[in-house]
Amino acid sequence: MLDRPVDAQDLRFSFTQYGGCSQSPRLFVYVACSPAMSSDRAEALMAEDPFGAALLAAHIPPGEACVTATRWLTAAAYVTSDVAGAGTDRVFPEAADEFQVPNWELMEAVVNRVLDDEIAPPDAIAEILETGIDETDLLDILLAGMDACLQVYGIYASFDDESDDTEERPEHEVTAEFVTKVRAEAASRH
Prior knowledge:
This protein is an all-alpha fold. Helix content is 67%, strand content 0%.
């Protein structure tokens, strides 16, 4: 039993210093994605910028960043599906059809594991990392999912339903509305 929390940097140092062992990589993935690890900093960075630029610039372990990005992607998919009047299972296929979004199947799988299967984000990420995908690549895919959700959201939110005017709303208004709704949804799920 340790007398302090262990972070991924400690594990990397120990693994390197002692030459590692054949069981360590699996343990590392589990510990790096453990819900017990603090993700307050990662959550604050995503709240600041839900598209992940601040998260990518920070020195946050990729596994922890993936867990946080999963929470936010789930919120974004929910918000997008709400404005589209469809289930979350339609968000990423529509993004692929309309905008040629790559890796949409993985985005959809992560969101479905969390929403439909009620798997906690750390467990969903641990499962995906066990397939051999690199944490950094997964993080990039999850953050691209945020953009995909915004693109689909924009299709449905670009026109003001309450006016007879068919003039398209400015992109910055749609983006600001999306970000506000995603922040609220993410806060309600945290």
